[in-house]
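# step 3/5: fold
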Amino acid sequence: MAEGLVKDYRRSRAVDGVSLRVGAGDRVALLGPNGAGKTTTLLMLLGVVSPDEGTVEILGHTLPKERRQALAEVGFAAGYLPLPEKLRVREFLTMYGALYGLRDPLAAARAALERFLIPELEAAMGTELSSGQKTLVGIAKATMHSPRLLVLDEPTASLDPDVALRVRTGLQSLCDDRGTALLVTSHNMVEVERLCDRVVFLAQGRIVADGTAAEVAAVFGRGDLEEVFIHLAVERQAAERQVAT
């Protein structure tokens, strides 16, 4: 999927030689403290940002030359993306279904809402939705066209436990039923351990661990992913203080 990705900004190297492969049905978490390079890596994988070095290939399509063909098989959602306030949920979803080229956008919209246990939101206006409901609708939108790769940036940030459960259950169903590959970033280590079967940790732009949650925790001699996250965050803060002095 990605080989040797490098991205430099003015004063620092945000991503330093990241290689990543995600297979059909895999549920992979891309983790790391703030500034580790997660978002930049995602943006390069989606073709939004061009790497200074390295290559990205999605389902046999090389970016950026074949970005349009590649992204036709990709879904993307993020907890921070807004929804239009003056559209009903079904209008919003059927609009995207038409853009995806679906034969029956309304049927696909309803199926996606059912998958995430929110069919009652079909007629709701954007202004009537809670933040958690907006997140669910955004993920439903990203899955309508049965993407072969689903990329989620902080999908369960600030969600109530019951809403996070709906997200997790729907995503697991999608991966199991349709073989969709999932790549997700998150700061919620508990949700990651429940949802993902593989964890890739970044620190200072490099991959420092890749394996199951238990394997990654063992690499650092920690009890769980949260302890690993805190350990790496503390290390980054110490490195920044050293540079500042």
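# step 4/5: annotate
DSSP finds nine helices and ten strands in the chain.
# step 5/5: archive (pending)
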